[in-house]
Amino acid sequence: MTDLVAPLTLTDEQRAVVERPWDARVLVTAGAGTGKTHTMVCRLNHLVGHPIPEEAVGADELLVLSFSRAAVRELTERLRAHGGAARTVRPKTFDAWALELLSGAYPGTDWSSRSFDDRIREATAAVRKGAVEVSAAGVPAHIVVDEAQDLVGDRRDMVETLIDVHRESLGFTIVGDDAQFVYGFQIEDRVQREREAGLFFDWVRASFDDHEELHLTRGFRATSTDVREVLPFGDELRSLPSGAAGREAAESIYERLRLLLSEQGGFPAVDDELFLASLRATRDRVAILTRDNRQALKVSEILHEHRVEHALRRSAHDRSVPSWVVDLLGATEATTLSENRFRSVVASVSLPEGTEPAEVWRVLRSVASARGSQGLDLGRIAPLVRQGRFPEDLADPVRAHVVVSTVHRAKGLEFDRVIVLTPPTVTELRAAHPDVDMPAEARALYVAMTRPREDLYHVTAPQVRMLRRAERGDRVHLTGRKAYQRFGVELRGGDVDHTAPFGDALAPAVQTYLREKVRPGDAVELRRINPLPAADGQSPRYEIVHEGRAIGEVSEKFRKDWYRVMKINRIWNPNWPKSVVGCRIDSVVSAAGPSATSQAAGLGGRGVWLAPRVGGLGRHVWACAEKETE
Length: 630
Ligand SMILES: Nc1ncnc2c1ncn2[C@@H]1O[C@H](COP(=O)(O)OP(=O)(O)OP(=O)(O)O)[C@@H](O)[C@H]1O
Fold this sequence. Notes:
The structure is a single chain. The protein has 630 residues and is an alpha/beta fold. Strands 15-16-17-22-21-18-19-20 form an eight-stranded antiparallel sheet, with helices on both faces. Strand 2, helix 3 and strand 3 form a beta-alpha-beta unit. The longest helix has 20 residues, at 243-262. It is globular. It starts with 11 loop residues before the first helix and ends in a 9-residue tail after the last strand. The site of adenosine-5'-triphosphate (ATP) has 21 residues, from helix 2.
């Protein structure tokens, strides 16, 4: 991220946004790479650090919301890097904010078991009933909404309600780019989806006569002329007409973007030696961007086979808590820590590069302060982990040079070089999906091609015909020529049982092994413990085995999802493989439960322990005698 070292200079257009007073209602539309994130960092610094005290807003009076964890992370890192007055502002995803609000308003309810959409709807109802006024954070003075183009459906309703209920006292800065509206698929109904594009902006325009519209037009990201040629397509995408004319125009944009991409440097295949060698040697940040999760899984598998170190970006909802949380809680017996004591305790914990002790203190204090003192209440941390409320800005940063990601998961991010999987032609798209959403395809390609700072390449997409998505749930699995064949299954966050430490009496030894021996990218296998299904509608139980040693067990969620993949029809009796190979360690993370659970496992009473996270595309292995038969 060059931005981390570049001085924060502003264009006149950017300055106009930055210097609006805190009670202004500002709508900023801007193309990709025109400095929306950059401008937001400066705006927040300006609001918090305003030299006239009456014009300044406290960092805790700002509410900064964005759609994806990736965008929140990017914004957080830039705020911290520039060390301005707003470095303590903590941007949140819409989902994290909703959960925080609900947990404060209804502390007795277990919100972690409810779906994301459910929680958003409940949070909207809570906002209407005045939950924000009585929340610990209180009513914000100014709200910043990033990636506003993707604010649709229930999330749009929630933010509109929040702004509407507090309209008398609130300023806002809403930033977005209609050309990058790529999360429309959240709305299943096609007609409704088309209608949703731009609806939030229209609501703001109609609801606030005093709103101001500002634009950023100068592109900063792309340094090469070729990449700069992509930007004008944003204007075309922003002005797409609705209906058939819009679909036709999108088709033309898509084909021209394809052509432009094909004129950039290209590689014949992901397993091409030259391609692999350049990835292994790179010191820059490189992204391989895929259209969907199946391609991302396949590319990652090929890179692993050829020993190219890389990170596979997780889904927006896939959260995890870094392993150092277990070490921190295990490093002291104290329940409350003063800042000085915290500093000496944290010195014995190895924090990942880029995670500063002072930052950890500040963020943890903001969610787990000791009542009536300036200290940190360590007893409040395990419940936060358990309820999925551990602050996402303390998640481990992605440090790999090479990142494999779907376009959606890379939105809002930038890389030195970007390699896009060669997109299919319109004819090929139509052959594969007769009702293809052409505006969505064109916007996704535009987002992909506007991610690089320096170079843009293409590589032939690997074959994923045999990778299908389960009809119920969206679990990717490997099929064969015959519809009933099942050769493999996708593993992802939430597939390892985190409800108790693994290993019964051996749990302490497993913890040491996880800490010392298990690393991201290591191969693991799922090994069947017992041939009988664990319960109705579930697969049998499987252990996770790392270099011959069991380090965990699959979760109930995985067993249920896998059963749905394997249960081809009502009368079909699934045959369960002896093992599943080819999965990889994603990371070792902190898990939490009641303190009695960790106590019973001999791990102390903190209620936290280490657990692996597993990902990738697993392949079924049958013992000869039980080969899958009809
Ligand atoms: N005024 C400026 N001077 C120098 N560099 C700038 C300026 N504004 C933005 N940049 C740089 O341009 C790049 C793109 O900016 P930024 O990521 O903020 O754009 P964005 O509009 O948020 O992009 P996207 O729409 O793709 O998410 C960054 O590297 C940023 O540092």
